[in-house]
Amino acid sequence: MRITEFDYDLPEELIAQQPLDDRDASRMLILDRHNSTWTDSIFRAFAEQLRPED
Fold it and tell me: Helix, strand or coil for residue 38?
């Protein structure tokens, strides 16, 4: 693996300049390592993702 594999175009206008007013509405990408799935979520739902073994 080479570091150049991580190069990608990220337009300046897509980079947050300040936090959201409603911070718990921030987006979050969740990886379930048990079944290798990705879920697009919001930080408000973070506690729902925790399991007893976490």
Answer: strand
